[in-house]
């Protein structure tokens, strides 16, 4: 509980944005950690509108492949780390958007995924995670602002429970906009057409099943590797050829933890990660409108 309070406070004082279009994207994150190892996480995914029932209702197919590689350097870890230095995650799901009356709308997402080190060829129930979210938006067009609130369960933030989603978004003028809330916050300055800088905080992480026994302290355990981190920093975004967006970010983690846990979510081993630098870059192609309350951001 103490960790959750710290995460919430740090994220709330920072400043995500929602898209009203489908997209295909590539993203790469690097978190160097001199005490334990370097984390490299690459992902490719899509958000493809497959059905617009009307201008107020749509369904999108969403999917992602993610590869996590950890280059361990800590010689004091009491077990061989080769079993947990590479994890792969596959997800596929549906996103339903509905625009209601008086500026209201909501999004419902269900996205099962497989996340594992694939040490064994056969998949088990513990390799499967079911993620989802329900978020309501209330747009105030006169004030150029929006409230969002709901709940989200995503195994890939490394937490074992659903988290609240709450945010206030405001467009100040043509150059400045912000979104302040949890689990993602941003402040944007558009200094030229198609160019902007962002300050951000965001909650992220990883969860994957260790689908074979792992020997720790000379005992065999089964369980999962879970990582949770909160990072803040600055980013640069540029739109080119009308639909492509390139982004680059750099920051520092304010909270960073990784554990091997058993299937009851009890700690088996804590890596005691130090906070450190964070780098991220990605490329996205936007296409296809979908029914969603338009964010002032």
Provide a descriptive summary of the structure in words.
- By secondary structure, the chain is mostly beta strands.
- Helices cover 4% and strands 67% of the residues.
- The chain contains 1 helix and 15 strands, in the order αβββββββββββββββ.
- Strands 1-2-3-4-5-6-7-8-9-10-11-12-13-15 form a 14-stranded antiparallel β-barrel.
- The longest helix is centred in the first third of the chain and has 11 residues.
- The protein is globular.
Strand order of the largest sheet: 1-2-3-4-5-6-7-8-9-10-11-12-13-15
Biggest sheet character: 14 strands, antiparallel, barrel
Rg, Å, rounded: 20 Å
Rounded mean pLDDT score = 90
Counting helices, strands and paired strands, the structural category is mainly beta
Q: How do the helices and strands line up, and which of them pair or pack?
A:
Elements lengths: L1 H11 L8 E11 L5 E18 L2 E16 L13 E14 L4 E13 L11 E13 L4 E9 L9 E9 L4 E7 L1 E9 L2 E22 L2 E22 L3 E18 L5 E4 L6 E13 L8
Antiparallel strand pairs: 1-2, 1-15, 2-3, 3-4, 4-5, 5-6, 6-7, 7-8, 8-9, 9-10, 10-11, 11-12, 12-13, 13-14, 13-15
